[in-house]
Amino acid sequence: MTAPHEEEFLAFYRAFWPRLVAALALAVPEGEDPEDVAQEAFARAYQRWPVVRSHDRPDAWLFLTAYRLATSLRRRLAVAARRLRPSSPTPVPELMSGSELEELLSRLPYRQRAALLLRHYYGFSTKETAAALRCREGTVKSLVSRARSALKDAMAEEAADG
User: Fold this and answer.
1) DSSP 5
2) Topology at the third CATH level for domain 1-97
3) What CA–CA distance (Å, rounded) separates 34 from 28?
4) What is the domain partition of the chain in residue ranges?
5) H helices then E strands: how many in the chain?
6) C-alpha angle with apex 116: 111 to 117, nearest 5 degrees?
7) 112: which of 22, 34, 65, 108 fits an S-S bond (Cβ 3.0–4.6 Å)?
8) Which residue has the higher pLDDT, 105 or 44?
9) Is the C-alpha dihedral spanning 142, 146, 149, 151 positive or negative?
10) What are the start-end ranges of the H helices in the chain?
């Protein structure tokens, strides 16, 4: 990479590192370090910087890459946890209890969770979220609406259960 591109990437890194780590704190499983996932996402952005920098929102590419890495990590840990469970019918406590919000978010389908986090946590507009998820703006509105409804129902259910 040429020196101007390296300086540009370094500025990008400094601008988005804190926001990405904060966003990933809601996406990575409890006990895992969001900084590790953020670092991997930045490493991938660095490798592809000439292409990534040409996007309208390079940070959207970065966020989605990081979110996919976090989702992959969650899946790998879930598979490992299932493999470690005894085959007896004895109930096994959950290995990843997490915060209530993380638990509720983890129940949402991937696209609903991504749309909700992009819109309301990461601050993307509907148009930007649609571009990042490669769908229409109406689809983003629908995904966010369904995610909110599912979260509201889950919170009401949690409250009723005590």
Assistant:
1) H
2) Rna Polymerase Sigma Factor; Chain: A (1.10.1740)
3) 6
4) 1-97, 99-162
5) 8, 0
6) 100
7) 108
8) 44
9) negative
10) 3-24, 34-47, 49-52, 58-84, 100-107, 110-116, 126-133, 137-161
**CATH code for 99-162?**
1.10.10.10
Q: How far apart are CA 85 and CA 82, in angstroms?
A: 5
Do the Cβ atoms of 107 and 154 come closer than 8 Å?
yes
Give the three-state DSSP class for 37.
Answer: helix
The residue with tokens 């598979």 is: 79
Q: How far is CA 108 from CA 18, 92, 97, 111, in A?
A: 25, 23, 16, 8
* 53-75 residue pLDDT tens: 999 999 999 999 998 898 888 77
- Strand positions, DSSP E, 11-154: none
DSSP 53: T
Token couple for 137: 């703006």
CA dist 126 to 10, 59, 139, 143, Å? 28, 15, 10, 11
Prediction pTM value: 0.59
